[in-house]
Specification:
This protein has helices at about 1-20, 25-35, 40-50, 50-55, 60-75, 80-90, 120-140, 160-185, 190-195, 195-200, 210-215, 215-230, 240-245, 255-280, 305-310, 320-340, 350-360, 370-395, 395-405, 415-425, 435-450, 455-460, 475-480, 495-525, 530-540, 540-590, 595-610, 620-665, 680-685, 685-715, 720-730, 735, 745-755, and strands at about 100-105, 110, 295, 310, 465, 480-485. It is mainly α. The strands form 3 sheets. Strands 1-2 form a two-stranded antiparallel ribbon. Helix 6 packs parallel to helix 7 (about 120-140), helix 16 packs parallel to helix 18 (about 370-395) and helix 25 (about 530-540) runs antiparallel to helix 26.
């Protein structure tokens, strides 16, 4: 070691002497700097090119310093720097060198254990080879064969291919830099410095590890960003990969932001092409499921709108909002709906106007969000208008809704009155004995007998008789229903689920109409004049006659009470529920433009009718109580009929007796004989009166209990309209005064309930 130090000291003195000969001033500065440093530090300072200390004309002395260091390192067995530079450049290309090789275990390039390198150079090499590891990782996304040992993302697709192409373009400048650095690495440092070419040309062309560190600073930053993008998109495709990249575009470093946006813009080009084709043509070519619109080819065109296409939010890139994505999905569905379900191509000529508008907005590009906004707005304006025109003008959607309201929601009142009069006797029979053909004939007869005969055959022919599944003990009233048949594309709005709601509402209204019809038939039997005549005729029959007359008056009063309840409840359903909801539906139909809004408006209409009419899932208890009330009203007709038949029989016998007496008196005979019935008490069976009195009392009690249960359950309903129904049913506080129902139902209480 001492000999080496003495040799280096002699070299330094010789070099200093030569420098003084060339330039006295520069030599003096060199001598002063050399005196301040020890011998080893001076050589390293010269070799490192510290021009602030040695001046600009120390090229020769730097060459001497490098030669001295090479001798020192050779004596210590340290690896040559040129070989290390060469291996670092190999590592930057993802290639193993002689001394620096990739370690899969460490996932990094590392020096071989037997290589003698100083700690400073070892740390420097570790920093430099990070570039190689990053390059190897980024190259893995390109499918480079040199990336063995690094996790490779095998995902494919148009977006992934565009991403790879964008990375390849960004690496082009990196490849050029590596080529230049490899050329510089071929120049021996000492020989270059001895020629003095660098000083003459104003630059240094030789390469050291420190110089390499400076050269690779910018590529290291670029590769770090690209590696982050590779990791972020690992295992992702299509819109999910674009969303991951977009998150890294919001960066504080302008250069990193610009790099990410360049890659993102190139990667989004095929995806935006898919958006364009789907929005304008309704075409979806997505074999690898990269798009946020997915299609199920197993679904038939009958369910095209609701089930065939789906929105995959995971595949929606962040630069497209959720609202825009939903609109894009709807536009593509609308075009396919027109093409496949409506067999309509009137939209096709309007594509040129959309494309021109997008072109004027700057085209469809990631860096031009106005282009996407213009594409969506212009397409929506034309496609939604076409869908609306086809549905309402060609397929008469509004008229079909009117037909459903008239036929299934009992809007055509005279038709259902005629239908009930004609079918009533048949529907009293067991359900398994009914004939759909016979009932269909009655339906046609009812149509001809009502104002519905003026309706278009296109709507009347869709009205059919249907018998639901039934049990052996059920009668025709329990299984009879009407149905309205619609075809494509109207099945998109009138789905099976929607038609099942129409069926539920019709069955409810039909049952309500039957109760009203029964009470009206009872009224025809027990008109006030008839009731007064029967009461006066039977009142003279003693105690039994008075009881019979009292039952007739009580029966008439009970029928009026039942009819009042049915009338008010029917008014509530037909006007406050159906008509109000129908007006809202018409307003929405006039205002809404796209098919989704039209379908939603129709669904809201049906849901409102079902909920307000107490047919919802939360109203089953009150509905069962209401049906029990209906059953009591239906049984009332039989009790009233028996009672009036009894009174009519008494009156008939009394009239026959009067005629017999008059005939005998005319023949100058005794009017009556011993044992013959002569007054009302003789014509009344006391046991029958007692039975009828018991039946009527039980019926009144059953009605009171059912009514009390119904009125007490109404306030528990969540819909506010039921509060008005409760007030309407007891507006005179008649039930409240008798302790039936929840008590006082004042308007102020209803108003407080609304608030």
């Amino acid at each position: 070691v001492g000999a080496s130090a003495r040799g280096m000291r002699r070299l330094d003195l010789d070099a200093a002497a030569k420098a003084l000969t060339r330039d006295e001033r520069a030599g003096a500065a060199t001598a002063a700097a050399t005196r301040r440093l020890d011998d080893g530090e001076a050589a390293r300072a010269l070799a490192g090119g510290e021009k602030g200390a040695l001046g600009l004309h120390a090229v020769g002395r730097r060459a001497d310093a490098y030669r001295a260091l090479e001798i020192e390192r050779a004596a210590s067995g340290e690896c040559d720097e040129r070989e290390l530079v060469r291996d670092v450049l190999y590592a930057c290309q993802g290639i193993d060198g002689e001394f620096i090789k990739f370690s899969p275990a460490q996932q990094a390039f590392a020096l071989a254990p037997n290589v003698n390198v100083s700690a400073g150079r070892r740390n420097l090499i570790k920093c430099l080879t990070e570039v190689g590891w990053l390059f190897k990782k980024v190259s893995a996304a390109l499918g480079d064969g040199r990336t063995a040992g690094v996790d490779v993302d095998d995902g494919d697709g148009s977006t992934r291919q565009a991403f790879r192409a964008a990375i390849q373009r960004e690496l082009a400048s990196y490849y050029k830099l590596i080529a230049v650095l490899e050329a510089q690495a071929q120049i021996p440092i000492v020989a270059y410095l001895e020629r003095g070419d660098g000083a003459a040309k104003g630059g240094d062309s030789y390469l050291t590890l420190r110089r390499l560190f400076v050269w690779l600073a910018d590529p290291l930053k670029m590769l770090r960003t690209l590696a982050v993008l590779v990791d972020a998109t690992h295992g992702k495709r299509g819109g999910a990969a674009l969303a991951a990249m977009y998150n890294y575009s919001q960066h504080g470093d302008p250069s990193s932001t610009a790099l990410v946006r360049r890659v993102l813009s190139a990667s989004a080009t095929p995806y935006l092409g898919m958006v364009h084709r789907w929005t304008v043509s309704g075409e979806l070519e997505d074999p690898l499921c990269e798009f946020f619109v997915s299609v199920d080819h197993s679904i038939s065109d009958k369910d095209l709108w609701r089930r065939k296409y789906a929105f995959d939010e995971d595949m929606l890139p962040s630069f497209i909002t959720r609202e825009q994505g939903k609109t894009i999905l709807r536009l593509g569905k609308s075009i396919n709906f027109l093409r496949r379900c409506c067999d309509d191509s009137s939209w096709t000529p309007e594509r040129a106007d959309v494309l021109n508008a997008v072109e004027k907005a700057g085209g469809l590009d990631f860096e031009n969000p106005d282009g996407l906004t213009t594409l969506i707005s212009e397409t929506a304006k034309r496609v939604d208008g076409t869908v609306r025109r086809v549905l309402f003008e060609r397929f008469k959607l509004g008229e079909h809704c009117q037909a459903l309201k008239r036929y299934l929601l009992l809007g055509q009142g005279d038709l259902h009155e005629c239908l009930m009069d004609l079918m009533g006797p048949s529907l009293e029979q067991p359900a398994n004995s009914l004939s759909v053909f016979k009932l269909s004939g009655m339906l046609e007869q009812a149509v001809r007998s009502s104002s519905a005969q003026s309706d278009s055959p296109d709507f009347l022919d869709r009205l059919r008789v249907r018998l639901m599944a039934h049990l052996n003990e059920e009668v025709g009233w329990d299984v009879f229903t009407l149905e309205y048949v619609v075809n494509q594309p109207l099945t998109t709005i009138f789905t099976e689920h929607a038609m099942s709601k129409y069926l539920r509402v019709f069955n409810f209204l039909w049952r309500l109409k039957r109760v009203e019809h029964s009470l009206c038939g009872t009224w025809q039997m027990m008109k006030p004049t008839v009731a007064h005549l029967l009461s006066s005729e039977t009142a003279g029959g003693g105690t039994s006659g008075a009881a019979l007359a009292d039952m007739l008056r009580s029966c008439h009063s009970l029928r009026g009470e039942m009819h009042s309840f049915i009338s008010n409840f029917q008014y509530y359903v037909m006007f406050e529920v159906l008509e109000t909801s129908w007006v809202e539906l018409e307003e929405k139909f006039a205002k809404h433009s796209d098919l989704d809004e039209i379908i939603a408006a129709h669904d809201v209409f049906l849901d409102a009718v079902v909920q307000k009419a107490l047919l919802g899932s939360k109203s089953q208890l009150v509905l069962q109580t209401l049906y029990a009330l209906f059953e009591v009203m239906m049984s009332f007709r039989e009790v009233a009929a028996d009672l009036f038949d009894m009174a009519a029989d008494v009156v008939a016998k009394k009239a026959a007796t009067r005629e017999r007496i008059a005939e005998r008196e005319k023949n100058k005979q005794w009017g009556t004989y011993v044992g013959e019935e002569s007054n009302a008490s003789d014509f009344i069976d006391k046991d029958e009166v007692a039975v009828a009195q018991s039946q009527l009392a039980n019926l009144r009690d059953d009605y009171a209990r059912a009514l009390d249960g119904f009125l007490n359950l109404l306030p528990l309903q969540t819909h506010v309209d039921t509060q008005f129904l409760l007030f309407r049913l007891d507006f005179s506080e008649y039930y409240a005064s008798k302790g039936v129902g929840p008590g006082d139902i004042a308007p102020q209480r209803v108003a407080r309930g609304i608030q």
